[in-house]
Amino acid sequence: MWRSFVDDQSTSDVCFKVDNGERIYAHSKILTASSDAFKVSLKSGMKESFRVKDESLKRNVMMIETPDFSYDIMKLMLEFIYTGELKELDLYSIDICRDLYRISDKYFIAELGTVAVTEYRKLLTPQNVIKEVFEFGHLYPELCKQCTSFIQLTKKEIDPNDIVELVAHEAHSNHVLLAILQALIE
């Protein structure tokens, strides 16, 4: 039932403008009940949110610009907020799980973060784990923790050449390299 209210323009009072300029609609009461970040953003008029006249709706809405996220990720987050679940998790890619974790981190939606991390962990492989930890481990300690734990379990299957190749290109991630080496040694 609640899923039908996601992106419902007829009853919404909040509009998210996502990375490509598309818009997705939501309800301030549901958002503020689900996250302190939304409560602060919608109540205090932070720079990411402002009241605008939505010409397609012919009324004012709170606009929240979210250039870091796609329409699909924003919709999945809203579906989770409205229903408490994500449908068809087995169809998600590691990129989607990572982005769901990122958005849960930004908006302080712990339950979504837990689901995203659980699904992210299932998608780690000996072939992608080194790249994942180098690209995102320094930004998101919880993802780094999942990657290093996975490395410990599968270190015999990881190609050392993958590590050497990434170290050559990602020299700025010394603490991530240290985490990988510790996982391989333990």
UniProtKB/TrEMBL annotation:
Residues 12-90 form the BTB domain. Pfam families: BTB. PANTHER family: SPECKLE-TYPE POZ PROTEIN (PTHR24413). This is BTB domain-containing protein. InterPro entries: BTB/POZ_dom, SKP1/BTB/POZ_sf. PROSITE patterns: BTB (PS50097).
